[in-house]
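Attaching the record inline, Q. Sequence:
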Amino acid sequence: MQMAANISKIIKETLYNFWGYHDFRDSQEEIIHSVIHSKDTIALLPTGGGKSLCYQLPALVLEGTCLVISPLLALMKDQVQQLKSKGIEAEYLSSELDELQEEEIYGRCIEGFTKLLYVSPERLQNSTFINRIEEIAISFIAVDEAHCISEWGQDFRPSYQNIKKFRTQFKNVPCLALTATATPKVLEDIKTKLGFLQCSVFKKSFKRENIQIYNDEVADKYAHISNILKHNNSSGIIYTRTRKDAEELAQFLQSRNIQNVDYFHAGLSTKEKNSKQEKWLKSNNNNVLVSTNAFGMGIDKDNVRFVIHLSPSASLENYYQEIGRAGRDGEKSFAFLLWNEQELMDLDDVLKNSTPNKNEFIKIISYLYSKFMIAENELPEQIFELHTSKIKDFTKISQAKIKNVLNFLHNQELVYINTSKKLSTLELKFEVSDLESLSKKDGYFIELLLRNIDGLSTHKAHFSEANLCKKLGVESKELKERLREVQQKNFVEYLDGSLHSIRFLKPREDRSILGKWWNLFEQIQKNKLQKWEEMKFYARNAEFCKMKLILSYFGEKSPKDCGTCYVCTNTRPAEKQQSIESQILDLLKQKPATIDDLAVLMNFHQKDKLQSQLIFLLELGKIKMLDFRTYTIK
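Structure, as predicted:
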C-alpha cells in the first residue's frame, strides 16, 4: 500500500516538474500505473486525449530506455524536439543519420542517459539495430498509432507486424499500444498481432462534448467558408482533399480580405513547412491553415476553435481524428463538414478510376524495374528521378492509378518516394586525379563544381542549386542542362532536388509482386471502398445525432445523443423558437446583417430555420429589409 502511494507521488511530481500539470486527464494515470507495473497495455484514447504522456512519463520514472515505435519521421522529430525543450533526453534513429551520429545515440542509450528512443517499425529488421539494442536496458516498448498493425485499419503498415517477433528478444519487457482510431475488429487485431495474451485495456469514450458538429449540404463551398471566417477571431484548420484545393481556397479567402490564412501540404519544402507550421502554432488567435491531411498528426495546439472539411474525408477514422484537433483545451469548438450530392458522385468516380486491375498493377511495377534496369533479386543503392508522366506515356494508364500504386509501394516500404522539394545531390563517377583526361569544356565545368560544392571531391554532396547559380552567375535552366550533359557522359551522378525521386528498399521479387503484394493491394482497395461508403452514409444522414453515429461506429454500446450537433438542435421542442427570435432581434439591434451573418453569429444555425423566423418577424413588423439580402431592426 505504501509502495503504491509512493509511486503515485513520484508520478504526480514528474507530471508537474516536466509538464506543469497538477492533475491527469481521464485514464492517463491508470495507464501509466499499468505500464509501471509491467503489464502489457492498450490505450485507446481519442485525438487530443493525451496519448503521448502515457508513455513519456513512465519512461522518466522507470530505469532504462523506452523504445518508441512510430510510423512517421516527421512525428518522431516533432516529439523529440518537444521532449528536449522540456529537458528530457530523447533521440530518434532514421536513415538520414550517418553512422557516427547513430553510434553516438546508441552510446547515450547504453550509458542510460537517453530515456526515449524513437524508431520506425522498419528499423526492427535492421541487423545493426538488432545487435546494438541488446546492449541497451529497455524499460518498455511503446507502439504509437497501433492501428497500423491491422489490415482492417486505415494506414496499414505491414512492418508493424514485425513487432511481435521483435518482442521475443525482450520477453519480460512490457508493451504499451496506443491509438486514437480503432474499431472493435482492429482492437482485436492489435491484441493478436502484438502477442498480448493478457493485457489491460483502457478505452476512453470517443465522445467530445465540447465539439459541435455541423454537416452542411452546400453548392458554393468557398462562399460558405468565407461567411464563417468573416466573423472569426480564433485559430482553425480547413482540410482539403488535394494540394491544388488547399492553395486555391487560401488564395480565394485572401482575395476576400480574410487575413492570416495560409496553405500547407506535403509538396512544400521542409523549410516552408516548418515556417508555416511554426507561425500557426505560435498564433494566439485568428490564424487559419488550409491543408491536406499532411498536417495535424502530432500537432500540440490546444486552442483550435474549429475544423472545416471542404469535402468528406476518405473514412470516418480520418474524419474523427481530424475534427479531434479542435477544442483540446475543453472549450467550445466547432466541426463543419461541407458536401453535396454531385461531389459524392464525382468522388465515387475518382475512387473507381484510381483503382487499377491486376494487369495494370503489374504493368506499372514492371515499368519501374525495367526503366531503372533492376534484375530479379537485385537491390540498387542509388536514388532515381521519378517522372510519373513518363510512366503514363509508356503504360497508357491514368495518373490516378499510377499514383495509387506508387503510394501503395511507398506505404508498404517496397520503395521510398520523395515528393518534397529538397537539396540536389551530386557524386563524381571518376577519380579527381583523372580530371585532366576530360575535354576542356567538361573539365572546366566540373572543376567549377568542385570549387563551389563542399565535399564533392570525396563523397556524394548535397547542394542548393539556387545558391550555386548565384555563385556561377548562370540561370537555373542552363545549370541543369550542363549537369545533365555530364551525367549522360557518366562523369557524375546527379539528382535534381526539385523533382520527385524513388529509392528501392527491397530486392525485386516478381513472384511476391504477382502474389502477396497484389492480394494485399486488392484487399486494401476493397477496405478503402467500404470505408468511403460508411463516410457517405454519415455525410448524408440527417436523422441520427452525428456524435452518436461516430460512437456507434467505434463500438460504443448504447451511446446517447450529444444534444449539440445540428441534428439534435433541429429536433428541439417548438417552444425554443422564441429563443431564436430573441437572438435575431438582439443581433439586429447591434447592426444590420444578412442571413449568412446571422447563421454564423448564432453558432451556425441552419439557414432554412432562420429564413422562416425572419419571414415571421417581417410579417410581425419587428424587422425590415434594407436590400434584398440585409435585415435590420424596425
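The mean pLDDT is 88. Residues 45 and 204 are 5 Å apart (CA to CA).

More tomorrow.
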